[in-house]
Amino acid sequence: MKSKFNFKEKFKSFCFILVPLMVIVFQSNVSNLKALPMDNNQNEIIIEELRLKVPSNAKAAWLNAEKKIWEPWLSTQEGFLGRQLFWDKEKAEALILVTWKSKKLWKSIPISEVNLIQEKFEDNIKTALKISESPFELIYEGELDKQV
Hints:
Layout: H1 2-27, H2 30-34, E1 46-53, H3 59-74, E2 80-88, E3 93-100, H4 103-107, H5 111-129, E4 137-145
Antiparallel strand pairs: 1-3, 1-4, 2-3
Helix pairs in contact: 3-5
């Protein structure tokens, strides 16, 4: 009985030393985690991704307004590298990919300026289609980091 008790005491002592030792060892990697912020791509190429509903009867007006309103404005923005437009007939959905030199340059554009261009875009669409509300619904907006 005495040997069992002695073993339990030794095991407790071992665990008492082992647990703090493991904490110290595993905490040595915490500084690496802190060194990798989520927003580390401020100066790398980034792609703005927009998805919106574009009914087939509004596709031509959408493309025309993109070319007439967004394209000239985007080409004046610092950091703008290009864009691609896609349309999925089955889903009646558009995908717009806008490539920027950096997230910092992209996000430095005042939202008030973007809203003004968006308003011009929607007015163009409403006039072209002779409707009172834009037929487009924004489904998703996000960003993609370019992989090397």
